[in-house]
Amino acid sequence: MNGHDDEIGGMIIPEIPSYEDLAIPKERKRKNKGWLIPVIILVVCVVVFGVVFAYQHLMRRDQYSKEAYEKLTEYVLEYNSNIDRLKASGAIPEGAEIVADYPITLDLATGTKKGEYNGILMNGLPEKYGYFITMDEGDEKTQKYLVWTYFGEWDSGHFSGNGIKFYPYFYYFEGNYSDDYEISGVMHSFKQGFTYTGDFKDGEPFGNGKIEYKTGEVFEGIFENLLNAYGNCYNPYDDATYKAYIENGQLRYVK
Q: Is the pTM of the predicted complex or chain greater than 0.85?
């Protein structure tokens, strides 16, 4: 064509665009869609990351922490060693037997508990030394996390003397028991990483005690329970001790 409109019989015929002219908008169209690719990639990445994160979160909830697993292994090995020692020394009470995975229901001061017992059994009740596996009540989703074990000394079916209460998903307590309750010892939280050392009442920290936090802070004082206390706290960041209190589980400094 001649590069301009032609006139035939009084009619103006517009110039027909060349192939190159037609290709230009097609190329532009392809370029305009280019933004879709990074968006799609971003969306896929977000979805994949979300799925992986959710899976890992569930796996963490569903498994013991490494620290808890190591503690459980330690307690079981200690139990086996102590039972062997009691056998070898002839310290098993006359008329008693050593049982394994023995189904039993115990009327503890904290409530009736069904479970399995391993250790010395006398007159149908745990005696002297052994461990008891049971669980607290909960719904179907939380039940598995409420399993706990008591390792230690017994008196006619009750926790008495040196003992350990072990919740694999939450905490362990090591110390002294009387009539099924903790009276003094050490409680360590797997989840929050703090350690309480001190007195207990009805299974709760009460009286003189100390909490060591994973931040390095150390609080010492008088406890009403684990969530409320008053006293002093050592702060490692400025190497000084200040008056402080614990309110609803939160450590606060007195200004």
A: no
For 197-226, b/e burial (b = at least 16 CB within 10 A) is bbbbeeeebbeebbbbeeeebbbbbebeeb
Per-residue pLDDT reduced to its tens digit, 173-223: 999 999 999 999 999 999 889 999 999 999 899 999 999 999 999 999 999
**126, 139 in Cβ contact below 8 A?**
no
pLDDT digits (tens, 9 = 90+) for 165-176: 999 989 999 999
Task: Using DSSP, state whether 154 is helix, strand or coil.
Answer: strand
Phi first, then psi, for residue 233 (nearest 5°) are -135, 130
Q: Is 21 left (phi over 0), alpha (psi -120 to 50) or beta?
A: alpha
- % residues pLDDT > 90 (the chain): 64
Please give the distance of CA 114 from its chain centroid, rounded to a whole number: 24
- In terms of C-beta distances under 8 Å and separation of at least 24 residues, what long-range contacts does 213-217 make, across chains too? 213/251, 217/251
Helix (H) or strand (E) holding 25: helix 19-32
